[in-house]
Design goal:
The chain is α/β, with parallel strands linked by helices and about 425 residues long. The chain has 16 helices and 16 strands. Helix 8 links the parallel strand 9 and strand 10. The longest helix has 17 residues. The protein is globular. The structure holds 2H-imidazol-4-ylacetic acid and zinc ion. The site of 2H-imidazol-4-ylacetic acid has 10 residues, from helix 4. The site of zinc ion (ZN) has 5 residues, from loops.
Length: about 425
């Protein structure tokens, strides 16, 4: 069979394929790394993965050959938790934030998420689309080829649908794949301050409309003290489940509200944040298929405790890492920085970190059959890093190591001069 592209001379090919554990490895170090690897691509798919010399019969029938010059190649990075589509920014709260005013206090006073809600309601669909495209372009430079994107800055039907429509259009108008999540339960809007029940009813009413228009695959709730309680979240998830949404949750971010336990009870794809998770929460997650999605950039930015990643991993919990890109608690598109913080602050090991942003992130968004690893039949999404080994990418922090990014078999980013 003819191939379109072969990338060869790959110093370390992190395929992300799950392999048996070696002695002394943690339960999350089971990903394959091939020395001197190559990848054969046909159309938008991976046709073959190999090691050593590329067989001459393959070369003969291939259109294009690319020399990776001994660099690291990994699956396209997946950012499995973002608040991508929003208006405005919140630097007006920055001084308060660094002087210690708590996140939930800023929200209580009508700032925080509610300030982004006002800014998002003001922008047109076109304006939101242009802003999100710019963000995705930046994400692509960090090697991100798939992004989960939540609504939740509308908190009224019109604006929630507008955000979700932007998610849909992004998939037709730029390269990074967007997985859409409805998060109408992100905060209680000001106009419903004394009418919680009525607002929850409004969210439930939107579920069939969103499903019918196929505007979101996932449903998410900010289950947090002073936002939505465990009981309210349970009610919302029961409704969302009836309509066939896949589920994910903002769990135990600031205060422990047994969010992790709720995630397991509902067999959610992902329980996200978990900075305040309890031992019972870890116990529940370890016996489940739910991915613990950690967002250490948020701890860094809010000056908060980090999630107990080592304890989770050693207990057998499967962890993903993502940016939490949003205008308040983590305004960064730099997933490589998040990976570096995971090494320095969560004490995660290099193989664990690459697993967390590839195959485990794919599981968190329900895409493990098509992306997240470089294996035959999967989509040809991968990153060439300007590095000889994965340790270097984590050790040399604060910069982007991306050299080239391929999405669906096409070169979509190339570093200038790289
Ligand atoms: O805009 O503050 N945690 N939601 C829950 C956020 C952070 C995003 C924001
Ligand atoms: Zn979030």
């Amino acid at each position: 069979m003819n191939a379109d592209l072969i990338i060869y001379n790959i110093g370390q090919l992190v395929t992300g394929k799950e392999v048996p554990l070696k002695d002394g490895e943690s339960p999350m170090e089971n990903i394959e790394i091939l020395e001197n690897g190559y990848i054969v691509i046909s159309g938008n798919e991976i046709m073959e993965v190999g090691q050593g010399e590329v067989p001459s019969k393959l070369i003969k029938f291939t259109t294009k050959l690319v020399d990776a010059e001994g660099c690291v190649v990994t699956p396209g990075l997946i950012d499995s938790h973002t608040h991508l589509v929003h208006g405005g920014s919140r630097e007006n709260e920055f001084l308060d934030k660094i002087q210690g005013v708590p996140y939930l206090e800023i929200l209580e006073k009508g700032g925080g998420i509610l300030s982004s809600v006002r800014a998002t309601r003001e922008l047109s669909e076109e304006e939101l689309l242009d802003k999100a495209k710019k963000t995705l372009r930046t994400m692509l430079t960090f090697g991100i080829t798939t992004v989960e994107s939540k609504s939740g800055y509308g908190l009224d039907s019109e604006t929630e649908l507008k955000q979700l429509k932007v998610n849909e259009r992004l998939n037709h108008e730029q390269e990074v794949e967007v997985i859409s999540t409805f998060m109408g339960a992100h905060a209680l809007p000001e106009e419903y301050r004394d009418r919680r029940e009525e607002f929850i009813g409004k969210i439930i009413d939107l579920l069939p409309i969103i499903k019918e228009r196929n505007l979101a695959e996932f449903f998410d709730v900010f289950c947090e003290e002073g936002v939505f309680s465990n009981e309210e979240s349970r009610r919302l998830y029961s409704e969302a489940k009836k309509y066939g949404f896949k589920l994910r949750i903002h769990a135990d971010e600031i205060v422990n509200t047994k969010g992790a336990e709720l995630a397991v009870e509902f067999e959610m794809n992902s329980a996200d944040h978990l900075m305040a998770i309890s031992d019972e929460g870890i116990e529940a997650l370890k016996n489940s298929k739910t991915i613990a999605n950690l967002l250490p950039g948020t701890s860094f930015s809010l000056g908060k405790a980090y999630a107990p990643a080592r304890k989770m991993i050693e207990s057998g919990v499967q962890v993903a890492l993502s940016t939490d890109y949003n205008p308040g608690s983590c305004p960064t598109e730099n997933l490589q920085l998040i990976m570096q913080i995971a090494a320095l602050k969560l004490k995660m090991k290099p193989k664990e970190i690459f697993k967390a942003v590839t195959i485990n992130a794919a599981k968190s968004i329900g895409r493990e059959k098509t992306i997240g690893s470089i294996e035959e039949g999967k989509k040809a999404d991968f990153v060439v890093f300007d590095a000889r080994n994965i340790e270097y990418i984590l050790y040399h922090f604060g910069v982007s190591h991306t050299k080239k990014v391929f999405k669906n078999g096409c070169l979509v980013y190339k570093k200038v001069g790289g």
